[in-house]
Amino acid sequence: MVGLDHRFGRFKHNKKLTKGEHTVAFQPVYVVDGARTPFLKARNAPGPFAASDLAVQAGRSLLTRQPFSPSDLDEVILGCAAPSPDETNIGRMVALRLGCGDKVPGWTVMRNCASGMQALDSAMANIQSGRSQLVLAGGVDALSRAPLLYSDTMVLWFAQMMSARTAGAKFKQFLKLRPSVLLSPVIGLMKGLTDPVNGMLMGQTAENLAWKFGISRLQMDEFSVRSHQRALAGREAGHYGEIVPLVDDKGNVYAEDDGVRADASMAGMAKLRPFFDKKYGNITAANSSQITDGAAWLILASEEAVKQWNLKPIGRIMDSQWAGLDPAQMGLGPVHAATPILQRHGLGLNDLDAWELNEAFAAQVMGCVEAWKSDDYCREQLGLSGALGALDESKLNVDGGAVALGHPVGASGARIVLHLLHVLREKKARRGIATICIGGGLGGAMLVEAEGQS
Q1: Residue 307's pLDDT is what?
Q2: Is 383 in a helix, a strand, or coil?
Q3: Stretch 29-49: mean pLDDT, rounded?
Q4: Is there a contact between 246 and 57 (Cβ–Cβ < 8 Å)?
Q5: Whose CB has fewer CB within 10 Å in the chain, the N or C terminal residue?
Q6: Alpha helix stretches (DSSP H) within 65-186
Q7: What is the per-residue pLDDT across 415-436, written as a single tens digit (0 to 9) for each?
Q8: Which sequence positions are flagged as catalytic?
Q9: Mean pLDDT over all residues of the chain?
Q10: What is the per-residue burial (b if ≥16 Cβ within 10 Å, else e) of 66-100?
Q11: Closest CA to 402 of 241, 267, 275, 224
Q12: Residue 21: its pLDDT value, please?
């Protein structure tokens, strides 16, 4: 049920939209170009690049090939879910490092897994209002550098040690230190991947969907193997042209996503034990998205900017939608966000040429597909008359997804929009939706069209 005044069309609060009922009239927002880094898998230690380094290297490669200067941008918007303490307002920090100059505003947005998509949405809003004409927007995270934190008990011990005034008092406080507390840090990433309201890890919410729709371990593992196979096939076919190499301070070059496994197999998948529900669960590290470092950028422009700089856009973002749902079912966010877009534009699931649905978990993507097929779910949760139908999975994540590529939380929302446009152009197709689930019980979606496609 859509009840909102959306900037892409005005809808009455008390009216259900049916297929064909839609009003869409807005200033076009063009995607001029885009680039991303390879996604580097976290390997139990800080990775070679800080988040700002990832964003700067990708941004430099992208801006170098443009006919305008970085200082010609109206603003830089960067999504980041977990910036380090020395990267406060990372969007501004990166804008300055990219040579945008003091006068180009740079700012940061955070919508958890969709931070990169939120950056695009914020850029679109400013372009449509006329406040900006040319915007660099995207997302980044270096999850391998998520901090280890002291517990409250340990922090209190430090506070009391610092407040002790004499050597004797400090020594007395030192004797209260317990090695078990000192050597048991809080893992910051686990905190970040835990819903603060219901206390569930994101993987536990995926277990909920597996139970709800009867998705088996075998099905999850098959999906995951296919994700790796599609990613490898896409790489071999040259479908990842948006990737620009990274170079570290030792001269090492990182040219490809390094979590994609050529040896992914059902036998290998079966060896892993459930991680989130060790007794009854089926979600493993292998059928979940990888913890990863990476950045993705898009350049968005108004029609005026396209003409001014004689730009050659690769596509347009036609619509966007955000939705909320039960945090314990957060993986179904794409269903709640994409469905209103379909209604507004009078589209069925398979009227689109391609879908990019971020693979937070294999069970989560499969749960979305099952929800659209369910009469009960579509009636009770979406206010529809019945099921939307079966999504043609040959159109879904055709070059693999986050299970194989990784999920640097702040970057993924931008990555799927950018790659969707590349898929459409490769297929000489026209239209697709990129959509993502968001920790906390949210979903985001964007409808895009490839420029110049029939």
Answers
A1: 97
A2: coil
A3: 96
A4: yes
A5: C
A6: 90-97, 115-129, 152-163, 167-174, 179-182
A7: 999 999 999 999 999 999 999 9
A8: 113, 407, 437
A9: 91
A10: bebebebbbbbbbbbbbbbeebeebbbbbbbbbeb
A11: 224
A12: 44
